[in-house]
Amino acid sequence: MITMIAAAGENNELGKDNELVWHLPHDFKRFKQLTTGHHIIMGRKTFESFPKPLPNRTHVVITRNKEYKKEGAVVVHSMAEAINLTDGDSQPFIIGGGEIYTLGLPFSDKIELTRVHGTFDADAFFPKFEKDRWQLITETRHEKDERHKYAFTFETWVKK
């Protein structure tokens, strides 16, 4: 099962200038809990936004640059190649950015989406997906509080 995992604003905003536009500790905790021990597929810019590779995950980085090499990353040049590398992983995750989510949507069976209740200035967006082809199986709302400037809802979607 291939899962896309993302946090997106009400208008599918992901971030600006290769950074998130919110800080949601519960979302970070959920991301870590779900992705630890699995392959995480991402674009080069997403990988380079990390101060260092995330622990206990295999980083699969998609780039057009045939010369690109980075310690801590398995470098590939297509989504199909990335997915082939995850053979044996029961649940690899596609973690972004916007272009990688668009490439990954047709391959995905599940979407773990944190819907951030707000609108944001952004330059990267989560792709619109046809909700009649997906079923929302769980949603858990979290109100804003002293650690979370925005309310948000954890949504789990599975392909019908």
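The above is record 1. Record 2 follows with the same two-line structure.
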Amino acid sequence: MLPGIRQTYFIVFLGCTGLILAALYMQHAMGMHPCPLCITQRIFVIVVGLLALLAALHNPAAFGRKIYGGLSIIGALIGAGVAGRHVWIQNLPEDQVPACGPGLEYMFETFPLMDALRLLFQGDGNCADVVWQFLGLSIPGWTLVAFVGLAVISLWQALRKA
């Protein structure tokens, strides 16, 4: 039997929470410092997770499910685009990897907000490092898989009957 609509939203929230906890574990316990694209992906995992939590608490009717589902799909697809770009950068030949850019704090302190955000989404040479793999996929590769899964679940939630 499939979980109910409210339960599915809560499961998505828990999945997103697990992804963020795994990222924080890798950062603080394993010493893997996130690059700008990693941070951007975390932001979109949080966005989708918070939308799922709000939907679970709200328990919307059909129209509300379409709204929550649509917003979640948008968040997941943007996150998938960022993760896909990250995977692409990681697979570039060494001579084509973008130069390393300034740190995140420096970007937001020095540049206008829109320029800092553009640099954040663009990624840099730090994003090309593959520091961990599982079953042949890097962290951004697994994050891309997660975002695709989140988009599919969000579409299913938006279209399913109660």
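The helical segments are 5-28, 36-58, 62-90, 104-110, 113-122, 139-159.
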